[in-house]
């Protein structure tokens, strides 16, 4: 595969050519310990996947360059179990040529209410972690060793203290507690690869430090979800827009792909705060 050259537009215009160690991209995407980075792709008209219902049909070589670097810099990839099934996730490894960036294996952590683990992952040599709530605990513990199951039920999220069993009954997961459990295992650089419902929950909980979004120069029409999906506020009213700060923007001129890194919880120096999961 011949990888494309990228133009860095923000913060200063320059060329980012591919090289074996991707030194320029590593510097642009350095991952702070304790930070949660989400990486998503969307078409120009907002679709999170293509006609085959997977994101692979809307990505390209420019997206692949950045995707590889982000995985190489992470300790753990967190993904919703539904996305893991749809995208056919298997045991993860460090990308070829970039294994020197992190000595430890790249781990995978599934978030699931049901506790159902895709068969491809149950059969893997290195098993995933599963982050689940009370309803999914038994199924996850039946499929995986106890040290790979993180049970963190969410309770009392309606804020009035009057219905603390509601979220347990739904099987909701305390995502902050799950990230803290991963951090206690030394997995402090977290890369979330979706899907849209998990990203929505992480954003609602204020746990995402930075959001990397590739804009694919394609249109897919109505049907596919946005990169953030869910029911929205219970009242039906739109939540107030949250702010984001652009750290950098890359452009692949041949296809027109745009790759943006947005800081959602930035420190004074513009870097991610590194508070998520820590």
What would your notes on this structure say?
This protein is an alpha/beta fold and 278 residues long. The chain has a domain at 32-157 and 164-229: Dihydrofolate Reductase, subunit A. The chain has 8 helices and 11 strands. It has an 11-stranded mixed sheet with strand order 2-1-10-11-9-3-8-4-5-6-7, sandwiched between helices. Strand 5, helix 4 (119-122) and strand 6 form a beta-alpha-beta unit. The longest helix has 13 residues, at 61-73.
Structural class: alpha/beta
Strand order of the largest sheet: 2-1-10-11-9-3-8-4-5-6-7
Which range does the strand content fall in? 15-25%
SSE order = EEHEHEHEHEHEHHEHEEE
CATH second-level architecture of the domain at 32-157 and 164-229: 3-Layer(aba) Sandwich
Quantity of strands, as a count: 11
The CATH class designation of the domain at 32-157 and 164-229 is: Alpha Beta
Specify the CATH homologous superfamily of the domain at 32-157 and 164-229: Dihydrofolate Reductase, subunit A
Number of helices: 8
Through-space gap between termini: 38 Å
The main pleated sheet reads as: 11 strands, mixed
Mean pLDDT value: 89
CATH topology of the domain at 32-157 and 164-229: Dihydrofolate Reductase, subunit A
Morphology: globular
Low-pLDDT segments? 158-168
Radius of gyration: 19 Å
Level of helix content?
10-25%
